[in-house]
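Problem: given the chain below (186 residues), write out its structure.
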Amino acid sequence: MRCGMKFIKIILILGVILFSYQSIASDVKVFSNVNNIDVESGKINTNQYLVLKDSQIHYTGSSLPNSLKTHAKVNMSGKYVLPGLIDTHAHISLGEVTFKKKRGKLGLSANNSDDIAAWNAQQLLNWGVTFIRNPGGDTETNIRYRELVKNGKINGPNALVAGSVLNTLAFDGITVQISKKLSLND
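Solution.
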């Protein structure tokens, strides 16, 4: 009976080890024949390997380490890789801007929404932008966007966001109008 229990324990331990190894290995992606653009030197390094582990760059180089040689490879011949781009002025949630008459005065109004942010985010990713600085707009929408990306709920560039812009002219959806009568504490 004891021998049977030891055998079962050994089988269970081996199963756990194999399952763990498989889940670790499945998080590794190996790309071959990559044209890697070195932005510091301006040089294109051809026929390189690029290894991603848990969606992060783990290795780049002209030869593949022995520990990675058995992984399946994706042939990237004719494709180029460069670091993610940064957009320093991206109003991520800003949509249509219109003129509106309010109390007899003509003003600008901006449409902000989560759907607009998600669409804009996808367009930025398509162009290689992986980080943005959002200089202002609807505070709640911009913070919600940042958190949705951070929590993996939507795909989009990571973001440093600002809230509404303080301005002396009205621009609904982007600015908060201030005057001598309105303090910043109101």
